[in-house]
Design goal:
Blueprint lengths: L12 H24 L15 H19 L5 H14 L1 H9 L11 H21 L13
Helix pairs in contact: 1-2, 1-5, 2-3, 3-5, 4-5
Length: 144
């Protein structure tokens, strides 16, 4: 399965490694929280999502597996792609939480929380792709 591993060396290996480990820790931790506190996340699920409890549990498993996959060289590329897609797929729940004025006791309800959270989601998409070795942007080396 050669599509799982990028053939040429990646630029910025130290930066990429630090970002990869940080993102892996974040996703694994969030995954554990999703599994341990799944009912608490039901309020932010849009009404059109079927089987919301199961979806929250599946997202927790996806976060843990994606985070672990970033740490396994053969799975790093595909994990980066899947975590980027995951960050896109959960965005509707973030929007619903922000604009639906959904009160979740453990999470802040102000725009000081929602604004940065919504704005940071594209960064999570980029971060997963960069840490997974899928993209080099904006740090690509250009020939002199």
């Amino acid at each position: 399965m050669t599509f799982l591993v990028r053939p040429e060396p990646l630029p910025h290996p130290r930066l990429r490694a630090v970002l990869r480990w940080a993102l892996a820790v974040i996703y694994i931790a969030f995954g554990v929280v999703h599994l341990r506190s799944a009912p608490g996340f039901l309020a932010i699920m849009p009404a059109w999502v079927p089987y919301p409890l199961e979806v929250v549990l599946i997202t927790g498993v996806c976060e843990i597996l994606g985070g672990l996959g970033l740490l396994i060289p053969r799975l790093r590329w595909i994990s980066g792609v899947m975590l980027a897609l995951y960050a896109i797929c959960v965005y509707p729940a973030n929007l619903h939480h922000a604009f639906g004025q959904v009160d979740v006791g453990s999470l802040p309800s102000s725009w000081w929380y929602h604004g940065p959270r919504l704005a940071f989601q594209p960064v999570f998409v980029w971060w997963a792709l960069f840490a997974g070795g899928v993209i080099d942007w904006p740090l690509r080396r250009t020939p002199a």
